[in-house]
Amino acid sequence: MKEIRWHGRGGQGAKTASQLLADINLQEGKFVQSFPEYGPERSGAPIKAYNRVSDEKIRVHSGVYEPEVVAVVDPTLLSAANPTEGLSSDGILLVNTGKSAEEIKSETGFNGKVLAFNATEVAENAGSGYANVPVLGALVRVLGTDYELARAEVESALLKKLPEEVVEMNLAAFKAGYEAVNN
Amino acid sequence: MSNGNRQVLTGHQVVANAMRQVDPDVVAAYPITPQSEIVEYFSKFVADGKVDSEVITVESEHSAMSACVGSSAAGARTMTATASQGLALMLEIVYIAASMRAPIVMTVANRALSGPINIHCDHSDSMAARDSGVIQIYGEDAQEAYDFTLMAQRLAENEDVLLPVMVTLDGFTLTHTAQVAELLPDDTVTDFVGEYEPLYPLLDVDNPTTQGPFDMPDYYFEHKLQQVEAMNNVPEKFLEVQEEFSDLSDREYSGLFESYRLDDADYAIVLLGSTAGTAKVVVDELRDKGKKVGLLKPWMFRPFPAEEMKEALKEKEAVAVFDRSLSFGSSGPLYLEVSSALSHEDNKPRLYNYTYGLGGRDIAEGHIAEVFEDLENPDLESKMHYINART
Q1: Which chain A residues contact residue B6 at CB under 8 A?
Q2: Do both B287 and B334 map to the same domain?
Q3: Does A157 contact B at CB distance below 8 Å?
Q4: Labelling B272: which of A44, B75, B146, B230 has CA 20 to 30 A away?
Q5: How far is A149 from chain B (nearest CA, A)?
Q6: B123 and B89 belong to one structural domain
Q7: According to DSSP H, which parts of chain B are helical?
Q8: Which CATH number characterizes residue A65's domain?
Q9: Does residue B85 sit within a domain?
Q10: Contacts of residue A60 in chain B, CB cutoff 8 Å?
Q11: Are residues B146 and B237 located together in one domain of the fold?
């Protein structure tokens, strides 16, 4: 079983991205959980969301304490939250940032694998404006998920709540995110 | 969102879908906090024309259950959902629903009671309703909440039962977590729940009945004994419904509680709800290390399966009963039941009470493993133990 933690701010779509990832993993035939950590629900407040992914039925219902992968949607949370908490040096830290992976390593003191790219810029270039989707694209690559399968799921999920042109922008951002990191 | 019959849904969505498939005549609810999203999703199904139910939105949970009682008395298949303070406010009328033998099915997203104000999971709300005459079934995950919501319909409406059924699922842990669940095809559910034929509908004006009247000392007692009798009929009927449901769903339900690696266990934990899943993982890990540990998870808390539970536990060395609610000045409600069930045994297991998870406090695998370790100690104190709390 793999455990993933998301860090974002209320309104940035970290929870939505977590749920999209669960949908994608389901399409791969996996068992999943996706849940946010609920505190006072305020736009802009730091939030966490979690995914569990497994080949077998997931029975555990506790919080996630030692994630294998951490995805940071908002760069300011590197200092405002503690995104490397519980992340072992075998783990992966995926960060939306304008800085380099080396800079993130020295800022956080994290010795494991850091994947850094500017998801905010990617989203702006694509016109969608939300960094959650390119970070999801990168995460899908990190997890070794089939790109076409993931893209199709993101498309069908977003089409249920967004107009087609906005979905197209998000899919462009998803692709750019996927291509921004190496597996 | 779906892979074959498997879908990723939150507990709320799963229960709302069960309600859609049951297609009740009436759903009465108070649609704001501390309500759950169940009624919100269900209302959307109604607005989208996917179900024909009449949704009555009322001004309080007290009124919600009152409307349910009226609707059920009229002869309508009636459902509702609530949580926390909402159930507390409903409670006066839940007693009346039970006494009027109204087969209302209600889901409860288990959440703490104020104060302090808290929106997270514990079992204080449904435990406050345990003496109301409602049947209580606790689910471990969204799948069980779905399955039991469907089974509850058949149980409630059984002529030997005719009681309200409360199906609970842990707030947030299950209600807000997207997880994999398998829904049955709509027509399978339609066939399973069948047409509702009320015995004494008020709207049957050719056969007028009096319902909910004043009852003097000369008959009140006997009417309560009829409720006792109805409750006594529940276990057998529940097992029958489980058997039928297992056949059509390919999911195994056979019992008033689930025993997990319990038969040859020396040490057992008894607990309700979602933490049972986490405990199963711990049981497997400890079994791999040669420890003889097991779990007993009651599905049904009312009526309480005392006799069956005594048989399952009496040979154990030690048993820890986990409660996710307090009864101030006494032990936890589940502990008291288990303790009472074992009270006449000569060589009963050492029995301990642990309180956990109040107001959404997390309980992880390590906490449960520690309790199994505690149980091996013959000198373990028999005071109340508190898990993951600053004492």
Answers
A1: 26
A2: yes
A3: yes
A4: B230
A5: 12
A6: yes
A7: 11-22, 37-47, 61-74, 84-99, 124-127, 142-157, 186-193, 220-249, 275-288, 306-313, 333-341, 365-375
A8: 3.40.920.10
A9: yes
A10: 277-278, 281, 365
A11: yes
Residues B263 and B368 in one domain: yes
Evaluate whether B82 touches B35 at the Cβ level (below 8 Å): yes
Whichever domain contains B105, its CATH number is 3.40.50.970
**Sign (positive/negative) of CA torsion B354, B357, B359, B362?**
positive
- A38:B119 CB<8 A: yes
* Same-domain pairing of B65 and B177: yes
What angle do helix axes B142-157 and B220-249 make, rounded to 10 degrees? 130
Residue B107 lies in a domain: yes
Nearest CA distance, B279 vs chain A (angstrom): 8
Domain assignment of residue B300, given as a range: 257-386
Beta-carbon contacts of A128 under 8 Å, excluding residues fewer than 6 positions away, are A166, A169, A170, A172, A173
Interface pTM (ipTM) of the complex?
0.93
C-beta atoms of A35 and B363 within 8 A:
no
B180 CB neighbours in chain A (<8 A) are 26, 31-32, 57-58
Q: Which of A130, A178, A164 is nearest to A24 (CA)?
A: A178
Same domain, B50 and B138: yes
Q: Which domain holds residue A169?
A: 2-180
φ, ψ (nearest 5 deg) of residue A125: -60, -35
Instruction: Tell me the one-letter amino acid at B306.
Output: A
- Taking each continuous run of H as one helix and of E as one strand, the counts in chain B are 12, 16
- Nearest CB neighbour to B8, from listed A32, A38, A57: A32
Mapping DSSP to helix (H, G, I), strand (E, B) and coil, where does residue A180 land? helix
Q: Are residues B298 and B223 in the same domain?
A: no
Domain count, chain B: 2
Q: Above pLDDT 90, what percent of chain A?
A: 93
Contact B178 A157 (CB under 8 A): no
Count up the domains in chain A and report the number. 1
Nearest CA in chain B to A23: B1
Of A22, A63, A65, the CB nearest to B178: A22
**CATH code, domain with B312:** 3.40.50.920
In a domain, B81, yes or no: yes
Q: Smallest CA–CA separation between A50 and chain B, in Å?
A: 9
Subunit contact A38:B176, Cβ cutoff 8 A: yes
Is B311:B280 a contact under the CB 8 Å cutoff?
A: no
Q: Does B178 touch chain A (CB under 8 A)?
A: yes
Per-residue pLDDT of chain B (391 residues), as tens digits, is 556 689 999 999 999 999 999 999 999 999 777 678 999 999 999 999 999 999 999 999 999 999 999 999 999 999 999 999 999 999 999 999 999 999 999 999 999 999 999 999 999 999 999 999 999 999 999 999 999 999 999 999 999 999 999 999 999 999 999 999 999 999 999 999 999 999 999 999 999 999 999 999 999 999 999 999 999 999 999 999 999 999 999 999 999 999 999 999 999 999 999 999 999 999 999 999 999 999 999 999 999 999 999 999 999 999 999 999 999 999 999 999 999 999 999 999 999 999 999 999 999 999 999 999 999 999 999 999 999 999 9
Do residue B227 and residue B299 come from a single domain? no
Instruction: Calculate how close chain A gets to B176, using CA atoms only, in Å.
Output: 6
Is A29 within 8 Å of chain B by CB?
Answer: yes
Residue B202 belongs to some domain of the structure = no
DSSP B261: S
Query: Looking at CA atoms only, how far is residue B280 from chain A in angstroms?
Result: 7
